[in-house]
Amino acid sequence: MEGNSKLGSVALTTLLFALSFASFIKTLFVDFIDSLVVGFISLDMFVKFQRRTANPLVDLKVMSHRIIVFGNIALLTFRIFQYRIFLAERTK
């Protein structure tokens, strides 16, 4: 279990690190791509490990429920528009 939680931590940390580089994509493109690749690979490994484990840290079957999928899509859409508004005000 210890390695599994470390793998999840690496996945989340590198993906957040990549998102923090997104605003500097013109100057730090290689760092952005490296962080994104490492994040997605470790996230993929984490998900595959969770599916094979008898007692997973995150029950991935919950993510396939219709209400949760629609809620996640709605929240993601709201956050994207919220971020776009923040960027529009910041660039003026």
Describe the structure.
The protein has 92 residues and is an all-alpha fold. It folds into two domains: 1-57; 59-92. It is built from three helices and no strands. The chain has helices spanning 2-21, 29-52, 66-91.
Outline of the structure:
With 92 residues, the protein is mainly alpha-helical. It folds into two domains: 1-57; 59-92.
Q: How much helical structure, as a percent, in the residues?
A: over 70%
Query: What assembly state would you assign to the polypeptide chains in this entry?
Result: single chain
- Number of E-type strands: 0
Domain module tally: 2
Portion in beta strands: under 5%
- String of helices and strands: HHH
Question: How many strands, which pairing sense, and closed or not: the largest β-sheet?
Answer: none
Determine the structural class based on helices, strands and strand pairing: mainly alpha
Mean pLDDT: 78
Report the end-to-end length measured between terminal Cα atoms.
49 Å
Radius of gyration: 16 Å
Q: Estimate the global geometry from the Cα principal axes.
A: flat
Question: Stretches where pLDDT falls below 50 for ≥5 residues?
Answer: none
The DSSP helix count reads 3
